[in-house]
Every structure is written in structure tokens, then in C-alpha cells.
Amino acid sequence: MMGVPNDPDLRGIIPNCFAHIFGCLNDDQTEGKRFLVRCSFLEIYNEEVYDLLVDTKKNAQPTKLEIKENPDKGIFVKDLQQIIVKTTAEMETYMYQGTNNRKTASTLMNNESSRSHSIFTIYIETSEKTDQGVRIKAGKLNLVDLAGSERLSKTGATGDTQKEGAKINLSLSALGNVISCLVDGKSQHIPYRTSKLTRLLQDSLGGNTKTVMIAACSPADYNMDETLSTLRYASRAKAIKNKPKVNEDPKDALLK
Fold first, then answer.
1. First CA to last CA across the chain, in angstroms?
2. Are 124 and 21 in contact (CB under 8 A)?
3. Can you name the residues that pair with 120 across neighbouring β-strands?
4. Contacts of 98 (CB under 8 A, 6+ apart)
5. Phi first, then psi: what are they for 226, rounded to 5°?
6. Which H or E run includes 34?
7. Residue 65 forms beta bridges with which residues?
8. DSSP tag of 3
9. pLDDT tens digits along 213-240
């Protein structure tokens, strides 16, 4: 998802998205349209939600944020900062800031193992004048970096790192259950509330959305079990079918 952000050939999906989005907004075909772009960056660590764009030097103890639901907005995180950005460079600055605040630790399987799931969200609103008046559209892009699924026995993790691993595997398992229920199509109840991760990704999985999941697999035969598990996971996710439509004239659009 991140790659090597400073190297154009090795940049990951997240920094490449920034360049693509602002490239489209600055296109000649967008004349007469107004745009508002905002971003937020959060992590889910030990089943708690934290804002990665909060200055940790000023706040020694990060604040746990609550997940709320609103009939108009849907699922949202209360008090999560949404910062207005006007250039690719500005957005990259916030990405670096948030990435530096993320929790990582060294395990036997990974020198810089992510101990949290992160979600970088880009909110885009556009307004243009038409014969019927001003037309407003709003959309958001969730760029999700899931922590790896690692067998505790292989990581050699102990103490806090072991607890973190257990929470990571628990939320990934919950995500797998949600995906299974969505694919099944017969389930009356989708267990989104089982974990904070599935709650936040509710509208990215079964909502008005297009979703891409990329599975990162290890080529080593030593990790065959983990690779098979990841491929099964991705295979189930591939079977989810949504029919998204454009969000026109949303009630809470800032541009309005």
C-alpha cells in the first residue's frame, strides 16, 4: 500500500492515488467545476481507534475515538480530523506524519510488522452549474492497510506484541466472517459490529461502493499455511457483488 513513497518506480498504491486524483482534478475537462478535497488518517490498534494526524508531541497520551452512526452520514468516527488539502505534496505530508505515528514492532517474521490496521480516507466533493441549478456530488476513497495475519507461534512474539497479534488476528477473522455472510447472500444478519475494523469498513464492503482487495502472499514454502489462508480469504472477497450509484446532492456536503 505504501511502497517506497520517494521512489516513483517503487511507490505504493496510496501515494500513486494522490497523484492520480489531483491529476484528474487539474484536467482541462474539469473547467467550471469546483472541488473540495479532504483527508483523514486513523489506525485501529488493540481494537481501539486513534487519529494518526494528531500531533503526538503535544498529546503524549493518544485519545481513543468512538465510532458513531448517523442516518445521513452512515458510519463515522467522532472527532476524527478531516483536513482540507489542495496539492499532492500537502497530502503526502499528512501521509508521512500519520505513518510515523503508526505502531510497528519487530517479530521473527517481519522486522517492521504493522501492529495496527490503518485507513487513509480521501473525501472529494464537486459542484457544477447546470440548467437545473447547482449539482453536487460527493464520494470518498478508503485506502486500507491491513496488518498481516501472522501465526503467533511463528512470530516469537511475547508480552504486548503477542496481545497485539491476537487482536489483529481476531479482527481479520471478523472481517472474514463478514465477507462470508455477504457472499452467502442468505444471511439475514451481517456481523459488522464484531470488531472496529468491520464496523468502519461496513460501507466499503456491503454498501454503495466499489472495492478492490489486494492479497500480499509470501513466496516462501515455510509460510505455505499463511499463503493458502490469505488466498482463500481473497477468493471469498472476490465473490461479493455490489451495485454502486453516484452520491448526488448529499445533505451534509461542505461545498453546499
1. 33
2. yes
3. 41, 143
4. 41, 43, 52, 53, 118, 120
5. -65, -40
6. strand 33-45
7. 49
8. B
9. 888 888 899 888 888 888 988 888 888 8
Tell me: the pLDDT tens digits for 76-119?
999 999 999 999 999 999 998 998 888 654 444 444 446 788 99
- Is residue 32 left, alpha or beta, with left meaning phi > 0 and alpha meaning psi from -120 to 50? left
Amino acid 152: pLDDT: 56
Cell numbers found for residue 214: 489486494
The residue type found at 56 is T
Of 180, 181, 5, 203, nearest in space to 91 by CA: 5
Distance CA 197, CA 144 (A): 10
Global pTM value? 0.84
Between the CA of residue 145 and those of 25, 78, 126, what are the distances in Å?
25, 21, 27
Q: What is the grid cell recorded at 12?
A: 505504493
3-class SS of residue 238 = coil
Q: For 149-206, how does the pLDDT look when each residue is reduced to its tens digit (9 = 90+)?
A: 665 555 454 555 556 666 777 888 888 888 888 888 777 888 999 999 999 998 888 8
DSSP 97: H
> What gap in Å lies between CA 213 and CA 234, rounded to an integer?
7
**Phi and psi dihedrals of 187, rounded to 5?**
-70, 125
Helix 88-101 to helix 13-25 angle (10° resolution) is 160
Please name the helix (run of DSSP H) or strand (run of DSSP E) that holds residue 25, with its range, or none: helix 13-25
Using the CB atoms, write b or e for 24-41: b if 16+ within 10 Å: eeeeeeeeeeebbbbbbb
pLDDT, mean over the chain = 83
Gap between the Cα atoms of 144 and 175, Å rounded: 13
Q: Give the cell for residue 136.
A: 453536487
Strands 74-77 and 67-70, by their bridges, are antiparallel
